[in-house]
């Protein structure tokens, strides 16, 4: 047998592995999972029935163009169908965006810390990451990001609200930033948590994109819509970018079950808004509870909260798990805690209070 191995791309060396949220232990004390920003509620009314019907035909390939879903999205957002592209969650579409714009010798700019998939998909493409530190308030430093643009810059991610800090970029500062970015650099507004925003000064990326050909908006059905396990997301962008995304998409990547579930979820939007409203109320309760305990909590417009704990991060996560909730630690930096069921939030707040008393 030959001792040589197939040659693989050098860019793959040292790529960090994406770390999913730790699940709640089936036989342990952690009964609630607050580590993945999932919607704690079951699928919206009508979705289960739609999925059950779609299951009958999964011996067939799905509609590769996602025609029904694209038409529904085009009507919902008032955009041409040719400006839409779908993928396996917004992270799948994000990878398609990097593949479409950046390769060896190019640069991708994003804030840090931000969504942990950005460095992975950038390195896979062979491009170089340019990480711009968040401000002291855990917000995107858009002036520094604009200053980081060079002739090698091909794409900029703006995660709004930012994962994992929950902080937002508001309209005036975003418009000012976009005015500084060259027209041949694609700016991606990653709005996976858009439905949870209540700050009127945070713009809807779809309105921003309409007059700016170099702006692309990412959305997902994984968070507010509660379809995380079905993997369906989409981008809204002007035709050249959307066409490139369709070219780089994995053929038949979005299952027919996911497509039908997404359409049914869009049609149940009234129920969706009620559920999101309940989670926003719980978010307020969690933030106020933490601040009353003495924690510094950045203003969040997402379905999670962020605590910067530094070297105490692992110890805090362990305390929470022993209390009954699994959260998402970023070693040496802090923890992200999803807003879940009220019972789970109660357990988390109690664990946080106990940890705080012992400091």
TrEMBL record:
BP GO annotations: L-histidine biosynthetic process
Reaction catalysed by this enzyme: an aromatic L-alpha-amino acid + 2-oxoglutarate = an aromatic oxo-acid + L-glutamate
SUPFAM superfamilies: PLP-dependent transferases
Keywords: Aminotransferase, Pyridoxal phosphate, Transferase
Domain Aminotransferase class I/classII large: start-end pairs: 33-350
Residue list for modification N6-(pyridoxal phosphate)lysine: 223
Enzyme Commission (EC) number: 2.6.1.57
Organism domain of life: Bacteria
Top EC category: transferase
Keyword Transferase listed: yes
One GO molecular-function entry: aromatic-amino-acid transaminase activity
Chain spans, region Disordered: 1-39
Compositional bias segments (type: Low complexity): 18-33
Cofactors that this protein relies on: pyridoxal 5'-phosphate
Keyword Plastid: no
Residue stretches of biased makeup (Basic and acidic residues): 1-12
Family as reported in the entry's similarity comment: Belongs to the class-II pyridoxal-phosphate-dependent aminotransferase family.
Protein function: Aminotransferase that catalyzes the conversion of aromatic amino acids and 2-oxoglutarate into corresponding aromatic oxo acids and L-glutamate.
Subunit structure: Homodimer.
PANTHER family reported for this sequence: HISTIDINOL-PHOSPHATE AMINOTRANSFERASE, HISTIDINOL-PHOSPHATE AMINOTRANSFERASE 2
Protein name per UniProt: Aromatic amino acid aminotransferase
């Amino acid at each position: 047998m030959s001792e040589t191995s197939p040659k693989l791309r050098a860019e793959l060396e040292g790529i960090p592995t994406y770390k999913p949220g730790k699940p709640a232990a089936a036989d342990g004390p952690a009964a609630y999972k607050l580590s993945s920003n999932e919607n704690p509620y079951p699928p919206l009314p009508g979705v289960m029935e739609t999925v059950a019907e779609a299951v009958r035909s999964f011996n067939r390939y799905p509609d590769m163009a996602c025609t029904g879903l694209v038409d529904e999205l085009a009507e919902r957002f008032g955009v041409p169908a040719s400006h839409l592209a779908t993928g396996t969650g917004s992270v799948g579409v994000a990878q398609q965006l990097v593949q479409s714009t950046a390769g060896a010798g190019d640069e991708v700019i994003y804030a840090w810390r931000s969504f942990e998939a950005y460095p992975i998909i950038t390195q896979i493409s062979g491009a170089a990451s340019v990480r711009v530190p968040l401000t002291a308030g855990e917000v995107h430093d858009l002036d520094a990001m604009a200053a980081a643009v060079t002739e090698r810059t091909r794409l900029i991610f703006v995660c709004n609200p930012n994962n994992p800090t929950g902080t937002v970029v508001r309209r005036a500062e975003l418009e000012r930033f976009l005015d500084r970015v060259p027209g041949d650099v694609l700016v991606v507004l990653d709005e996976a948590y858009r439905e949870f925003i209540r700050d009127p000064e945070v713009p809807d990326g779809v309105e921003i994109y309409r007059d700016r050909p170099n702006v692309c908006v990412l959305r997902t059905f994984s968070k507010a819509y509660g379809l995380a396990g079905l993997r369906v997301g989409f981008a809204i962008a002007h035709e050249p970018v959307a066409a490139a995304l369709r070219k780089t998409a994995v053929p038949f990547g979005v299952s027919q079950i996911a497509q039908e579930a997404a359409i049914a979820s869009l049609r149940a939007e009234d129920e969706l808004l009620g559920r999101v409203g309940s989670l926003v109320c719980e978010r307020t309760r969690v933030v106020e509870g933490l601040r009353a305990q003495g924690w510094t909590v950045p203003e969040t417009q997402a379905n999670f909260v962020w605590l910067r704990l530094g070297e105490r991060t692992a110890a805090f996560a362990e305390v929470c798990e022993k209390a009954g909730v699994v959260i998402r630690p970023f070693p040496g930096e802090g923890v992200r805690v999803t807003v879940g069921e009220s019972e789970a939030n109660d357990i988390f707040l109690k664990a946080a209070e106990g940890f705080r008393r012992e400091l």
